Amino acid sequence: MSYLLGIDIGTSGTKTLICDHKGKVLATAMAEHDIYSPKPGWSEQDPKQWWDATCKATKAVLRKAKVKAGQITAAGLSGQMHGSVFLGEGVEPLRHALLWNDQRTGAECREIEEAAGGRKKLINMVGNPALTGFTAPKILWVRRHEPKVYERTKHILLPKDYIRYRMTGEYATEVGDASGTLLLDVKKRRWNRKLVSLLGLDAAMLPDCYESHEVSGRVHKSAAQELGLAEGTPVVGGSGDQPAGAVGNGIVTAGIASATLGTSGVMFVHADEPTYDPLGRVHTMCSAVAGKWCVFGCMLSAGGSLQWFRNHMALTEVAEAKKKKCDPYELLTAEAQKAEPGCEGLFFLPYLTGERCPYPDPNARGGWIGLTSRHNRAAMIRSLMEGVTYGMGDALRIMDEMGVKISTVRLSGGGARSKAWRQMQADIYGRKVATINSDEGPAYGVAILAGGGTGVWDSVPQACKAAIRETETLKPDKARAATYNKLHDQYQRLYAALKDEFAKIAALVG
User: Fold this and answer.
1) Is the pTM higher than 0.85?
2) Is 241 a catalytic residue?
C-alpha cells in the first residue's frame, strides 16, 4: 500500500494528515506554534518553529497511521497566506515572519496604490487592492524600518514555501499562494514584473511559480532524517490555505461555493475565468486547479465572535459542558433557538478585530444594536449567530453582483456542526447548503493535490469526485429567507451609518 501526506502550516499550529489513494483519512497530527505581538496590531512568528512543528507532526502522523516512510507517494504543502519570511543565504530567517493579520502596513498600502497609479489600476494589475494583510506591504515596511535586514535579504518566501525550502532546498511557490502577495499577475499566473519594478523591488528575491499539482522538489537527505520521510519523496506545489481548503471541500467546478466558519469566515467560489470586483471587496486569485481561478471574501471574526462570547459570557455553559462531557457551543446554540429569527430587531456587528470583507476597515468595531428590555440572553446569542451569517452573506451578495453563479454552498468549520446554524445559513444565503464526508480542511486538500500531481488521479477534479460526497443538504425556508433578506439589508446599513464613528472611537484610544 502507498499513501499521501498533507502538511498545513496554520497560524496556531501545523497539521499533518495521511490518506490512502481512495481519499480515506488514516490519521492526523498537530504541533502548535507561538505567536508574538511586539506592539498592538503586530503579529509575528518564528519560521523555525514551523519547521520544528512540521518535523514533529510528520513523525507523529506516520506513527499513528502505522505507515512507513517509503510508503508515502508524495507530499503536499498548504499554509497561512500572506506571511513573509526574509532569508539571506541558508535556512536561518533574518527576522520573525510578519503574518496575515499584522496591521502595521497602512502607509505602505498607500504607497503601493500610488506607485500603481491608483486603486483601480492596481486591481487591474494584480486582481486585488492593497491590504495590510498582504505580503508586498510587509516587504516595503521592512525596507523602510529595518534597512539592515532588507539589505541582507536574498529570498522572500511564504510560510509553506519556507517549509518546502527546508524539505527540498528549492526556492519555489505556486500561483494560488502567490496571488496573495499582491505581486502576481493573477490573470497571466506569473509575477507582475512591472509592479515589482514600480515598487523598486528585486525580482530575483521572488521564487519560481508552479501550478498546485506540479512537483516542485524532492525531499533531500538531511530533511528526510528530520521528518521521518524517504529521501526523494516528491513535494507538489500545494497552495495557500484557502485554495487548498477549497480542494478539501470539493470546490473545483463552477456553481458550488464553500462557507467556512472558523475563527475567521471565508466564502469561496470556483471560477473558470478571472472576474474582479471593481471595488476590491472580495479577492480574485488563482485556484489550486490548473488554469482556473477563485473568488473569496474573508471576514475576520466569524466563529471568533461566538468564541469570544463563550470565553467571557458563557462560563456557566463551559462548566456545565465539562460535567456533561459535551461541547459548550452545543449549549449556546440550543439556547439561541429559544429566540425568534430576527430577534425582534436586535443586530450584532461582528467586527471584533476590525474587518476585511466587505469592509477593509481596521477601525470597525463590534456590538449589539437594537437592544430593548424585551431582549434576553437567548436573543443576544441568536443575533450574534445571525450577524456572523449576514457577514458571510455579504461576500455572497458581492459575488452575485459580479455574475458568479452559485447554486449550492458547502459548509465547514464550527458553523457546520450545528444543524440550527446550518439551517440559518441556508435561510440567510437563500440557497441550498450541504455538508460533506470530510472536514479536514487544507491538509486534506493538499494531500489530494499530491495525488493529482503524481498520477494517483488523472486530475484534481477527478480526485475530488472520487473522494468527496455530500452527506446532508438543507433548503432555505421561503418565509424565513424573505424575512432575513430584509433584515440583511438593515444590517448592511448599520456599518454605513457607523463607519465615521468607528474611526473616531479608534482615535480616542490611540
Assistant:
1) yes
2) yes
